[in-house]
Amino acid sequence: MTSNSAHSAGHSKPRTIGELKRIPDFDASSSFLPVKNEIRRNLLRSIERGESLFPGVHGYEDSVIPQIVNAVLSRHNFILLGLRGQAKSRILRGLVQLLDPEIPVIAGCEINDNPLRPVCRSCRELLAAEGDNTPIAWLPRDLRYVEKLATPDVTMADIIGDVDPIRAARGGRDLSDELTIHYGLLPRANRGIFGINELPDLAGKIQVGLFNIMQEGDIQIKGYPLRLPLDVLLVFTANPEDYTARGKIITPLKDRIGAEIRTHYPTTIEEGMTITHQEAWTARDSHIKVEIPEYLRQVVEEIAFQAREDKRVDRRSGVSQRLPITTLESVVSSAEQHSARAGEARAVARITDVYAALPAITGKLELEYEGEIKGAEVIARELIRTAIGRVFSKHFGEVNFQPVIQWFESGAELKIPDDASTTRRYQQLCQVQTLFDHIGKLGVANRKDEAAAAAAAEMILEGLWAHRRVSRSEERGYYGEKPQRISEPRDRENPNRPRRTYN
User: Do residues 206 and 277 both lie within one domain?
Assistant: First the structure.
């Protein structure tokens, strides 16, 4: 039953059960659908209208979302199983959009009782006493979603409920009286969606408490049996790593969950960039305008992809999509800082800003033994170098950079101070022979745009270093190694014979 139905009759929202019944097109059977049927109906309508399901969730259109649709259409409780940072919680919260905009409930009821079929004793007594004058309220869809993060200290009282001695004393009631119950989160989600994040972290005895709620609607509070036929869609999330690290989903509960749906990380750089662009805070409230070149966004995303494939990074833990998000935010902050120090109003993020974002990377990596020996910062720097090399190859392929390389091999060096202004960086980079001839492949059309041109030129030099075509050190900056002269070993029989050398 939506507010639209009430308005269609030309009246304001009904405030009593009697007013609700007097709506001309009121039909109790269709207006008070069970929540799973309500979501199913609205989902089918959305599909028929070609609407986007779960807006803001990218990369799951052909994998995860069709499975969720099947589970919802089957009226199944389901669990999303996947590594951290795979949008599991976002998907659960997105289910709220499949609920009606608002529904009528008995005013003041703790468990959102149906005005025509209340299940709690206080509402039944109120309905018996007031009849059609029983007041109702309208509950918006956002308040029909209840979520709990599972932790080992969660109690049965938190989820199901407990006897409230103070309520019993004030009302002069016996502790076994149903009216003394303080309802937990699950009953308060009645006629809505109840989500539990990280289900394996929930103690086994609490998981047992979910059995009958899911199947028969029976609960016990302090040994007091209570029939409470709740109308709830139960949804869960879990990380496969947690099955052994911190806990597990007990088999009987797993058997009662209708569908187990596995999530995954973005499968392409483009998908990852879309998510990162959506989530990262890059549009700053600052007078300094920061631009992020497309190739730099690719480097940031490639770091996460490389980390997920690196054997020194724990694959069971995964590399969250939060890594490129926080890295990109740190890149923007680094560019802001440089511009503020130089007194410039515009900044184009450059490759050195990615290295400045190391703290945003190292904390996201769970390392294996080999990685722990090397250290998170060393691993992160190697991941950045590999990512730069991949992006460089994508843009330049077989481009001949021999004139640039020979400029360095001739003995020239280039070291750009971190605090150098844009103009100074540009002037220094102009010294490198033919370097700026290639910046067009990185999307820089105007060579006179000093900020964009300098950033692209630095990317090229870093790409050549990533492919070991030039060298780089903190002390010397970029430089070239002169071709080594390879000598034959001396003839042991004729030690005075001169050695031959080859260039």
Answer: no
Per-residue pLDDT of the chain (503 residues; tens, 9 = 90+): 544 444 444 458 889 999 888 887 766 666 688 999 999 999 999 999 999 999 999 999 999 999 999 999 999 999 999 998 999 999 999 999 999 999 999 999 989 999 988 888 888 889 999 999 999 999 999 999 999 999 888 988 888 877 665 565 565 555 555 666 778 899 899 999 999 999 998 888 888 888 777 777 666 666 566 677 889 999 999 988 655 445 688 888 888 899 999 999 999 999 999 999 999 999 999 899 999 999 999 999 999 999 999 999 998 888 999 999 999 999 999 999 999 999 999 999 999 999 999 999 999 999 998 889 999 999 999 999 999 999 999 999 989 999 999 999 999 999 998 889 999 999 999 999 999 999 999 999 988 999 999 999 999 999 999 999 999 998 999 999 765 444 444 444 455 555 444 33
- The answer on 299 and 235 residing in a single domain is no
Residue 281 and residue 216 share a domain? no
Residue-by-residue DSSP string for 354-400: HHHTHHHHHTT--B-HHHHHH-HHHHHHHHHHHHHHHHHHHHHTT--
Same domain flag for 152 and 53: yes
CA neighbours closer than 13 Å in the CB half-sphere of residue 404: 24
Same domain membership, residue 326 and residue 240: no
Q: Read off the tokens for 93.
A: 């919260």
Is 293 in the same domain as 327? yes
Domain extent at residue 192:
3-262
SS (H, E, C) 480-502: CCCCCCEECCCCCCCCCCCCCEE
DSSP string, 130-198: HGGG-BEEEEEGGGGEEEEE--TT--HHHHTEEE-HHHHHHHT--TTSGGGEEE-HHHHTTTEEEEEES
Final residue in a domain of this structure, among 246, 262, 278:
262
Distance CA 346, CA 290 (A): 6
Q: Which residues of 361-373 are buried (b: 16+ CB within 10 A; e: fewer)?
A: bbebbbbbeebee
Query: How far apart are the C-alpha atoms of 286 and 452, rounded to whole Å?
Result: 20
What's the pTM value of the predicted model, to 2 decimals? 0.84
Question: What single-letter amino acid sits at 146?
Answer: V
In sequence order, the β-bridge partners of residue 234 are 194
Residue 124 belongs to a domain with what CATH number? 3.40.50.300
Which letter does DSSP use for residue 349 in this model?
-
How far apart CA 216 and CA 230 sit, in angstroms, is: 9
- Residue 31 falls within a domain, yes or no? yes
d(Cα 193, Cα 345) in Å, to the nearest integer? 48
**Closest residue by Cα to residue 420 from 324, 312, 321, 344:** 344
Q: What is the C-alpha separation between 83 and 221, in angstroms, rounded?
A: 35
Domain final residue, candidates 206, 239, 262: 262
User: Among 78, 145, 46, 281, which Cα is nearest to 55's?
Assistant: 46
